[in-house]
Design brief:
Radius of gyration: 15 Å
Distance between the termini: 48 Å
Number of strands: 7
Largest sheet: 7 strands, antiparallel
Structural class: mainly beta
Oligomer: single chain
Helix content: under 10%
Shape: globular
Order of helices and strands: EEEEEEE
Length: about 100
């Protein structure tokens, strides 16, 4: 007999740990946690523009998230846009 997993509502959260060097290069790690509890790890690379205070980040999935990628725009500490693919699903969110 096969069991069925509870259907999720599609929600997820993004947590990032970032550092910016003296050349305004951003690096770090991120984890997307699905509402099912599954965690997807990412590496983060990007650049911070001190004039606009906006960071453009590229998140690349590793391990269980391999093949997933996102482009994230951050204004100060506020995520403005997220675009890409998570586990084969297209994602676009704008928080303008």
């Amino acid at each position: 007999m096969l069991g069925t997993a509870a259907a999720g509502d599609g929600s997820w959260t993004l947590s990032m740990t970032l550092a910016t060097d003296e050349r305004h290069k951003v690096s770090g790690s991120a984890v997307i946690t699905l509402n099912s509890g599954r965690s997807l790890p990412f590496t983060v690379r990007g650049v911070f523009n001190p004039r606009t205070e906006i960071s453009k980040l590229t998140l690349l999935g590793v391990d269980t998230a391999k093949g997933s990628s996102l482009v994230v725009s951050v204004d100060g500490n506020t995520v403005k846009t997220i675009k890409g693919r998570i586990s084969g699903q297209s994602v676009y969110a704008s928080y303008q």
